[in-house]
Amino acid sequence: MAGVLSEDHLSMSDIPAAAQEKEELWKYRAPYQVQKDHEFGSVKWRGKCHCGRVQYQLKRENPLAAKFCHCRACQVLHGAPFQWCAIFPKTDMCFSRGIESLKFYSSHSMTLGYQLPCKVYCSYCNTPIMDEGRNMCLIFPELIEISPEEGEHKRRRDVFDVDCHIFYSRRILDVLDGKPKWSGLDGKSNQLDDHGRAMES
Question: How many domains does the chain have?
């Protein structure tokens, strides 16, 4: 299948009838659609789940944005004080292994099954793989593989360095990093200091 089908350019004639009947249309869209190496392009990063059954690659070096999210859902679903995420267009990501091992969860409806937006996990080891929206994927930089070479760890940290904190008003702990902090969504809520105090506008 030539090219990558986006949400807006998916033609039913491109999809086998069996997949349509099983409502597996997502397999024929980015980032799940199988692509040959020359179709996808040069790989900048590779990531995988804990057990290795699910693996993906990225052809963009730098994310569009990176954030720490302190909302309650991220705290519960990640079992951590906050979530570290990096935003990439779906077409810049491609699964190289394990789409049959994926499972989907909607935190809005609290149901399993593929519906956007959704959270994507490895069904075997339960590693969170990404959050998928209509056009973007929020990947988790902890899954990015790095070589043991000196400087690789720092390179990953630098490339995925966060732009800001969101939902900081719901934080479990203070993060004294001097990064911009928002009480809710960035640019759409009040800005806070490192200790959660409202900043003067």
Answer: 1
Domain that holds residue 50: 12-162
The three-state (H, E, C) secondary structure of 102-141, written as one string: EEEEECCCCEECCCCCEEEEECCCCCEEEEECCCEEEECH
Strand (E) or helix (H) holding 155: helix 152-159
Bridge partners for 121 per DSSP: 103, 128
197 occurs within a structural domain: no
Please check whether residue 125 lies inside any domain of the structure.
yes
pTM of the predicted model as reported, rounded to 2 decimal places: 0.85
pLDDT band for position 21 (cuts 50, 70, 90): very low
Q: What angle is formed at CA 53 by the lines to CA 51 and CA 54, rounded to 5 degrees?
A: 110
- For residues 68, 74, 79 and 80, what is the CA-based torsion angle, rounded to 10 degrees? 20
Give the CATH number of the domain where residue 148 resides.
2.170.150.70
